[in-house]
Design a protein that fits this description.
CATH superfamily: Pyruvoyl-Dependent Histidine Decarboxylase, subunit B
Order of helices and strands: EHEEEHEEEHHEE
Radius of gyration: 17 Å
Number of domains: 1
Number of helices: 4
CATH topology: Pyruvoyl-Dependent Histidine Decarboxylase, Chain B
Largest sheet: 5 strands, mixed
Strand order of the largest sheet: 2-5-9-1-4
Shape: flat
Low-confidence stretches: none
Helix content: 25-40%
Structural class: alpha+beta
Mean pLDDT: 91
Length: about 180
């Protein structure tokens, strides 16, 4: 008998952390995001059909400390003072709920929260559109491409969860994380 490892629910979270050590900065960002108590397994970018999006608070109540938890995570660390770091998760869901959607992640520098949010939503929507046979012009603006997707009834919902952070002025490691947490 095969295990049913298709997630039924997901929630989104984000956090930041600062510490003199890189790993402890990462741990602090997971604590801030509320997911440090789990054994996190990073997975790729598919949102299963019929996967219900729930609140972080509700999702955390369904998990136990030490549990193996699958997630799509973006993580960016810097020890450069004042360097802008961003981590973002984007989601694009198709109009047909029997089809899968896409989750994208971005780890980068120099983007504002809005710019990173637009970027990860665009990546997720683009991945979804290409699976449904839409030819894309990468030079067209995101909003123009979203109008094409919607006109063809392909993308019904997009969203982004983004964490930006400025590098600590004294050079402490600074981490930004964003995650889509999947619940079986």
């Amino acid at each position: 008998m095969a295990l049913d490892l298709v997630p039924k629910k997901m929630f989104f979270t984000k956090g930041t952390g600062r510490h003199k050590d890189s790993l402890q900065s990462f741990e602090a960002s997971l604590r801030d995001a509320g997911i440090a108590a789990f054994n996190l397994v990073r997975v790729s970018s598919i949102s299963p059909p019929h996967c219900k999006i729930i609140s972080k608070e509700r999702g955390l109540k369904e998990l136990s400390p030490g549990q193996i938890v699958f997630c799509v995570m973006a993580e960016t660390r810097t020890d450069e003072p004042h360097r802008l770091a961003c981590s973002g998760i984007g989601l694009a869901l198709p109009a047909d709920k029997d089809l899968h959607g896409y989750i994208s992640e971005h780890h980068g520098f120099g983007m504002t929260q809005r710019t990173c949010a637009d970027y990860v939503e665009d990546m997720a929507a683009t991945m979804l559109a290409t699976t449904q046979g839409i030819d894309l012009d990468p030079d067209k603006a995101y909003n123009e491409r979203m109008n094409i997707y919607r006109a063809k009834g392909l993308v019904v919902k997009t969203r982004a969860t983004v964490q930006t952070v400025e590098g600590d002025k004294n050079g402490l490691w600074t981490t930004a994380v964003a995650a889509a947490v999947l619940i079986l």
